Amino acid sequence: MNCTFHLLVSRRRWYLLPRQSLLLRALSSGPQISRSLQENYRLLQLPDEGHSSPAQVKEAYLRLAKLYHPDSGAPTADAVLFARVEEAYRAVLAHQSKIGQPDGEKEVDEEDKSRGAALQHRHYLSYEGVGSGTPGQRERQYRQIRVDRASEQVLNYRQREHERAAAAEGALVERDMRQRSHKIKITQAVERLVEDLIQESMARGDFKNLSGAGKPLNKFEHNPYADPMTHNLNRILIDNGYQPPWVVTQRDIRETTAKIRTKLLEGRARLSDPMTPKDHRQWEQLCASVEEELIKLNKMVDNYNLIVPMLNMQMVHLSLSREIDRAVKGACQCRLDQQKEREKERERRKEEKKTANAISKPKNTKQGLMSWMQSLLR
Question: Which residues form the J domain (predicted)?
């Protein structure tokens, strides 16, 4: 009995020992990871590699990418260190996906998963696999390819629209031909009617009493080389009050410039030549008002330069200093002209006075001689 009991107990221990060892081995191997994976967790600066969520891993990778990405412009940018951070990020994502997957799904490609979990800027930097060189060079090449692709699409669209329009126009050609032939018939009929009426009037002699009969036409005497059609069109436009916008603007600029110059000249001419303090204040007020008018006039000149049809007809801005100098010189010239006119008037009066004295002297001598002879006879 005792022997049988000891035999059963020993057999039960033999069954329990392998199970306990297997359970302990599984528990001990669960949280342990490889040294390279630990180094990846440490490189990503994760607090706990065993309990880090994908969101925490992504946040850590974003923080390090902003620091070390070569295109970030940060002072800590390092292409080699960023490449290591990216490899560590992919390895950690692969490890976490392997832990969270059931056994039947472990055969899925880990690279595709990490690629799908990669950041958006990595997809952006791929440039659809176009170009070579640095990221900046690849970006320029990708932009040029996009421009070429867009221009090609525009050309294709225009070609399709032209084909569609041609097809639609082909359906209307026959109707247009009918309408055109009908209009031609009507025009010819009207022309024949007018010609018949003219011939009848000439036969009756209605055109014999016209003014200027038998004389050449003086319709284009201002310019015999002008095209009659162009002359008639311009005359019709002028008679109806039409003028091109740049012509109207040019006229307004010239009129405003003449008014400003006249205002400055008259204002300076009214003041004394060595100006007093009061004259200085009046002159400064006049210059300030003219400056505001010149600003508006220069804006008008800019608008005129945009619409004028020829470059040699463009105008330059008016300067206040040049206009002031011009007004001062004009006022000085006006004073000189006035002084010359006064001198001429004075000389003319002197000449008149001399001639009057020369005429009155013989009369006085004759009167004196007659009085002397009368007194002698007495």
Answer: 39-112
Q: Is 123 part of a structural domain of the chain?
A: no
Answer whether residue 225 is part of any domain.
no
Whether residue 363 is contained in a domain is answered as no
pLDDT band at 363 (very low <50, low <70, confident <90, very high): low
CB 55 within 8 A of CB 63: no
- The better pLDDT of the pair 342, 36 is held by 342
Asked if residue 164 has pLDDT above 90, the reply is: no
Q: Name the phi and psi angles at 372, rounded to 5.
A: -70, -40
Query: Where do runs of H (alpha helix) occur along 30-78?
Result: 35-43, 54-68
Q: What is the pLDDT of residue 218?
A: 66
Q: Find out whether 262 and 247 touch, Cβ atoms under 8 Å.
A: no
Q: Show the tokens assigned to 114.
A: 């990490």
User: What is the Cα–Cα distance from 61 to 54, expressed in whole angstroms?
Assistant: 10
Residues 6+ apart with CB under 8 A from 279: 271, 272
Q: Which residues contact 261 (CB under 8 A, 6 or more apart)?
A: 323, 326, 327
Residue among 246, 265, 263, 242 at smallest CA distance from 310: 246
Q: 88 and 158: one domain?
A: no
Contact 231, 222 (CB under 8 A): no
Q: CA 323, CA 317: separation in Å to the nearest integer?
A: 11
* 3-state SS class at 360: helix
- 123 pLDDT exceeds 60? no
Q: How confident is the model at residue 262 (pLDDT cuts 50, 70, 90)?
A: very high
Tokens of 92: 């950690």
